[in-house]
Amino acid sequence: MPSNPIQWFPGHMAKTRRMMKEILPQIDLVVELLDARIPLSSQNPELGGLVGSKPTLTLFGKSSLADPAASSRLKKKYGEEGKACLLIDSVTGEGIRDIPGKIREAVAEKILRRAEKGMEGRPVRVMIAGIPNVGKSSLINRLAGGKRAKVEDRPGVTRDRQWIKTTAGIELLDTPGVLWPKFEDPTVGENLALTGAIRDQILDTVELAVILCRRLREKYPVLLAERYKLGQEALSSLSDGELFEEIGRKRGFLISGGEVSEERTAVMLLDEFRGGKIGRITLEEP
């Protein structure tokens, strides 16, 4: 698998960077939405340079899919560093009601200055930033109380600038999901691909599913064994590729000659991981 997936999005990234710079003077606060399962890999290292001194709020999304113990440690670490953050989930609704208060808390001084100038009631303008398919549009729809932003379960759907009004006196700007120019660590590319931030059509899904088998065997062997009815011998003695094939065999994904259908097995494994069917899994921690 290529270690630098951004080669597929160079124009998209440059266009979004320009748009963000143009709109920043109108923004009161920047929300960076991260994936709680990959809080490091989903963090754009360029965002800090783009937003400068603007107040920021970090939201760890898809928390219902992440390991709750790992998420608790993550939130504690951010708190110790004095960074504003919340664990949220746009599907279950976890943490959503806490977001407007956190936003107002982060821009309290600006709201006070506006009130002193007789500008009460002016909406707080918030930019939502994040990688492809991290759930920005779903979050905005939750906060706006309806389907205002276009949502699809694939990266790269959000295209045009959209201001979305909420009943909490906050206006939200949805931005296209972008990756960044270079991944120093190939594991970052793996994590983004495993969670669906990079289009499956341009990746070798079988290779990716074998990587998933390796990562789950290392971090969550019990969940992997329980989901696919694997014995201890399979977990300890099979290679990653053999383990992948054993899972396909257990599921009955066979083709002529008794061979395992690699494509069906790969699609099933990635879908079940992304849908939380294997269990609540976090692939990395700070």
Largest sheet, if any? Answer: 6 strands, mixed
> What is the total number of structural domains?
2
The gyration radius over C-alpha positions equals 21 Å
Low-confidence blocks of residues? 1-11, 152-159
User: How much strand content do the residues show?
Assistant: 5-15%
Q: Give me the CATH superfamily of the largest domain.
A: P-loop containing nucleotide triphosphate hydrolases
Q: What form results from the Cα inertia axes?
A: elongated
On the 0-100 scale, what is the average pLDDT? 86
CATH top-level class of the largest domain: Alpha Beta
Provide a descriptive summary of the structure in words.
- The structure is a single chain.
- The chain has 286 residues and is of the alpha/beta class.
- The protein has two domains: 5-174, P-loop containing nucleotide triphosphate hydrolases (Rossmann fold, 3-Layer(aba) Sandwich); 204-274, Orthogonal Bundle (Conserved Hypothetical Protein Ylqf, Chain: A, domain 2).
- It has helices spanning 10-23, 47-51, 68-80, 99-106, 108-116, 136-144, 186-194, 205-219, 221-228, 232-237, 240-250, 262-274; strands at 29-35, 56-61, 85-87, 124-129, 162-165, 170-174.
- Strands 3-2-1-4-6-5 form a six-stranded mixed beta sheet, sandwiched between helices.
- Helix 8 (205-219) packs across helix 9 and helix 11 (240-250) crosses helix 12.
- The longest helix has 15 residues, at 205-219.
- Mean pLDDT is 86; it is low at 1-11 and 152-159.
